[in-house]
Amino acid sequence: MAKKVAVIGAGLAGSEAAWQLAQRGYEVLLHEMRPDVMTPAHQTGMAAEMVCSNSFKSDDPSSATGILKAELARLDSMILRMAIKHRVPSGNSLSVDREAFAQDVTGILRGHPNIRWVPGVVEAPNPALPTILATGPLTADPLANWLTQACGSKRLFFYDAIAPIIEAESIDMAIAFRASRYGKGGADFINCPMDKAVYDRFLDALLAAPRADLHDFDTPFFEACLPIEVMADRGWETLRHGPMKPVGLDDPRTGRWPHAVVQLRQDTLAGGLFNMVGFQTRLKWGAQQEVFRLIPGLEQAAFARFGSIHRNTYIEAPSVLSETLAVKPIPNLWIAGQLSGVEGYLESTACGLAASVFVDRRMKGMDPAPLPMETMLGSLLHYISHVPLKDFSPMNAMLGLLPELPEGTLNHRAIKKAGGARALKLAKGQACKGRAMVSLERYLTETGANP
């Protein structure tokens, strides 16, 4: 009989981990409380539901996310494969039709002969069963409270926000225009241009609009996903240098960059819905309708979903987790995904895949074998498990997490002379990717962890 393992949570990390273990011949008990018990952000009971944006970030092969995608492709990530299958136009990024994507992932998991779907809330894992806990930042209180007590540690929190989604037919294309920044990836975004007077009027309304109450004023916002109005609080020009930056977008009516731009990214393959890029918000719903209809081209906007805010949970990874995601004080338990302290859809997926590799090795009586730090995934897991606790917060994949390249790898002076700082950054990213893939191949060969 196949050995049993449990995965709690069918989000991106849990879905990836369950599929990887099932493919390796284990009998997987996949626990998911939705749709019987919903979270403040989810809307369905499907696996891998994307509740915030629909983007797996940049496809630039020399970026941190580009390197991580290359690693996931080599490790045969089911989630990455389904994301590519259901991608929608979004310039140089990988964005998906989130409903079709989740339906496909759900069908794969429910149809797998080695996966048994177990509904209901899990209050504590079975200590006799190897278990990956991938319940995400909206972990139900009974399980989160058990984890806090069992680890002798406290939970940490941050506020996360969701951006509105607009019905495409309600966008005035006599005002808005299609383009990608600097023409990269085709005319994949809808752009709503603003002159200075319109921008100033929009900022006045945004800053004055009523906001949804927060239940815990000591909980911080996540810096990488700040509500649009919180960014505006930091200065009048902040949005023009953030989600509303106009650079690289020529308005066809003027031939020039607008003063500011609101971008809309396709949310479904059919093109019927678009989400407001970078416009996650905690404004009250009525205020969202009033303020966001001040944006040129959105005067008659029909909202398929308003933005919202919710509190997310993550653990004290440096005190709780090893770099193989094993929970130090609790045998037979691994934590993956956003609950572990990584941030982002792609990072959560990678974390779930890594956990499956580590569990597989444990089940075979082998050493845990952490991933090499030269890989993007290995550096991310090393960071969350080793950073000083006082500096710990949710972390995305970043080139800065990787070890420095050996002296002499790049001729900095020649590269800068030929192409400037941008060329040097590109060359460094390409070198990091090459080193990461060599390190990953060596790891797979030495550990026998080939997918």
Report the count of strand segments: 16
What gross morphology would you assign? globular
Q: Uncertain regions: pLDDT < 50 for 5+ in a row?
A: none
Strand order of the largest sheet: 10-11-12-13-9-14
Provide the succession of SSEs. Answer: EHEEHHEEHEEHEEEEHHEEHEEHEHHH
CATH class of the largest domain: Alpha Beta
Description:
With 451 residues, the chain is α/β, with parallel strands linked by helices. It has two domains: 4-154 and 316-447, FAD/NAD(P)-binding domain, CATH 3.50.50.60; 162-311, Beta Barrel (Elongation Factor Tu (Ef-tu), domain 3), CATH 2.40.30. The protein is 34% helix and 16% strand. It has twelve helices and 16 strands. It has helices at residues 12-23, 64-74, 78-85, 98-111, 141-151, 196-208, 228-233, 285-292, 317-320, 345-363, 376-386, 412-447, and strands at 4-8, 27-32, 55-58, 87-88, 93-96, 115-119, 131-133, 155-162, 165-167, 177-179, 189-194, 260-266, 273-276, 303-305, 308-315, 333-335. The strands form four sheets. The protein has a six-stranded antiparallel β-sheet with strand order 10-11-12-13-9-14. Strands 6-2-1-7-16 form a five-stranded parallel β-sheet, covered by helices on one side. α2 packs parallel to α10 and α2 (64-74) packs parallel to α12 (412-447). The longest helix has 36 residues, at 412-447. The mean pLDDT is 93.
Short description:
The chain is of the alpha/beta class and 451 residues long. The protein is built from 12 helices and 16 strands. It folds into 2 domains: 4-154 and 316-447, 3-Layer(bba) Sandwich (FAD/NAD(P)-binding domain); 162-311, Elongation Factor Tu (Ef-tu), domain 3, CATH 2.40.30.260.
